[in-house]
Design goal:
- The chain is of the alpha+beta class and 568 residues long.
- It folds into three domains: 271 residues, Bira Bifunctional Protein, Domain 2 (BirA Bifunctional Protein, domain 2), CATH 3.30.930.10; 127 residues, YbaK/aminoacyl-tRNA synthetase-associated domain (YbaK protein, Alpha-Beta Complex); 94 residues, Rossmann fold.
- It is built from twelve helices and 31 strands.
- Strands 3, 7, 8, 9, 10, 11, 12, 21 and 24 form a nine-stranded mixed beta sheet that branches. Strands 16-14-15-17-20 form a five-stranded mixed beta sheet, with no helix packed on it.
- Helix 1 packs across helix 8 and helix 2 crosses helix 5.
- The relative contact order is 0.14.
- The structure holds one RNA strand of 77 nucleotides.
Amino acid sequence: MRMSRLLVRTLREAPADAEVVSHQLLVRGGYIRRLASGVYSFLPLGLRVLHRIEAIIRDELDSVGCQEVLLPALHPLELWEQSGRAAMFGSEALPALQVEGRGGSFVLGPTHEEVVTVTVGAEVDSYRQLPVTVYQIQVKFRDEARPRFGLLRTRELIMADAYSFDVDPVAMRESYQDVFGAYLKIFARLGLDVYPVEASSGAIGGDVNHEFMVPSVVGEDHFVSCAGCGYAANVEAAERAFATPESVADTVGEVVEIHTPGQAGIGDVVEFLAGENLTAADLLKSMAAFDDEGRPTIMLLAGDREVRLPSGWRLFEDDDFASYPSLVKGFIGPIGQQEHGLRVVADLGVARPGTWVTGANRVDHHLAGVAIGRDVEVDEWGSLAVVVSGDLCPRCGSGVELVRSVEAAHTFQLGYKYSDVMAGASFVAEDGDEANFSMGCYGMGVSRLLAVVAEENHDERGLVWPASLAPYQVHLAALGAGRALEVGVAADELYGRLVAAGVEVLYDDRDVSPGVKFADADLLGIPVRLVIGAKGLARGVVEWRSRATGDEREVGIDASLDELLGVA
RNA sequence: CGGGAUGUGGCGCAGCUUGGUAGCGCACCUGCUUUGGGAGCAGGGGGCCGCCGGUUCAAAUCCGGCCAUCCCGACCA
C-alpha cells in the first residue's frame, strides 16, 4: 500500500477525550475514530489489525472442530420473551437496545444464546449430529452505562463467541475443555498473558464458568492470584482461608447499649466513638439478605471488610425491612435474631477473641462489648468478605495478590438453561427419547483485544505491534525521492519486489520531510522499517531497523527476502 | 444513576473575570526554497464560539434551561 493513497491521517496530539495510552495511540495513528461515545469506526489500518486477531481466533476454533456461522444482529423481541430475559432489558445486567420495525419489536443483539439455540435446534434432530460447536464473529450492542477507555468498553463491540451443543453434561464438559484450550492458544498467539479464573456468571447464567483475565493497567477488574499454588479467581467469586479460630469463650465484661444518634454507617460510628480508640475492624458489620434458598439471613463480617454476596443471594431492600421489624436498617445487629426467624451466617474472619460493637436493632443505638459465642449465636460459618491482597489462599494458605486486569473472554457451562426454555432445542437421543441440548457458550471481546494488545505493545514514540498482529510487515520509506529521482526509482522497484513476493508493505512514498516519515513510522508501529536514502543508495544499501528493539543495520538493496525482512 | 470537569475551524488550545462582532500552533491549498528525526518564507481556504431562550444598543463573553463529551464512583455478559 502506498501511503500517499492510504486513508490515514496521523495526529501529533491526541484528542482530549482519549485518556489511556492505547486509545491515544490508536487515534493518533489513524487506526480508529470515535463517532459517538462508545462507538468507533475502524479505518483501514485498524481494520487490518482487527482482521489479524480474527484470523487467529478462526484458526484456533476451526482446529478444534468449531464451525463459523453469522447470526443476525437484529433479534425478534419474542425470542427474548421466550427465554425470559426480555424482563432484564434496561437493567444494568442486560442493557439491551430495542428498535421498532415493520415486523414488530426487535432487539439489537447484546449476546446470542437465544438466537443460536433456536438456529441450531432447527437443524439438529438426532444425537447422531452431535456434538456441534458453532461460532460467530460479529457486532453486538449494549447500552453501556459508561463507555470507557476507547475500545475497552463500548456500546457497539465486536465479539467472537462460540456455542456448543452436546447430548449430555458429560459431553458438554468435553466440548468446554476443547474451546477452553483453543482460547488459551489464541491468547498465546496474541502475545498476551492470560489467567483463566473462576468467576460468577451474571446475566448469562449457568454453573461453572471462567473469565480469561489479562493483567493490564487499564483493567476494570481485579482477580485474586496465588503465587504459591496458582489459584486464581475473580474477586466476585474468590474465597480465602483463615487461621484456626482461637477460643472466644473466655470473654469477660458485659454488653452495654450506647447512644449513637444518626450514626448509621461503620465509618460514622468509628468517628462518633473516636474517644474509644476503635477502628472499623472492631465493628461487627451486619447485613440482611436472603440466601440462595430465600431464607432471611444476617451476614456478619468485620467492619473493615467489604461484603461479598454469595451467588444467588440478595440483599434486603427497603420493603423487606417492613417484613422483619426486628431489624432496624442502619442499626442492624445479630443478637437474638434466631427468635425472629433469621439465620446468622458469619465470616470466619470474625472468629477472634474480644468483643465487638454492633447494631442494637434500635434507632440511634449500638451495642458494645458483644462477644460472638456468648451473645451471638452463629448458625453457619463461611467466607463472606471480598478478598484483599495479603489474605490467605483457600487452596494452599499462602498470601494472595489482587491483580488489575481486563476481562478478555468469558466461558460458561450453560447446561440446559436455554435449551429448556427455547422452542425446538431438543433432539432424539440414542435411547429414542427426546432430550434437550446440554450447552456451553464462550465469548471473547475482539475489539477490546485490540485495545489490550495496543496497551501492552507501545513505547513513548508509538505502537509496537508484534508481527502476528501488525497491519503491515514492512514499512518502506523513501527519503528525498523528489530531489533524487534514483531514490524514487529504487524504492518503487524494491516495493514492487516485496509485494510480488507476498510481503505486506506500507510504502511511504509521500513527499514529506524525513522527520515526518520517521515519526509516523514509529507511531504506526510496523515491525520492520526499511529506509532508502540517496547516500545509502549510492553504496547500494538500504537501512533495516526493528521497531521493537531499535536494532539497525545496512542491507544490500538486492539482498534476499529474508535479509530484508530481518529473518536471516 | 451519584460526584467532578469540559464544549471556540479536522486536532490541541487562548479569548470569557472587566460584553464591542474571533485568534494562536498543528493540519489543509498555491508558489519558491529546503530535505536522514515532526523544515523556511510568502500568499490562501475553512468556525451561526454545543443547542434553545433571556438580559442588552450590542453576547463566545452575563443569566436560565437542555444536549454532548471525558474522569471518579455504582454497575457490568
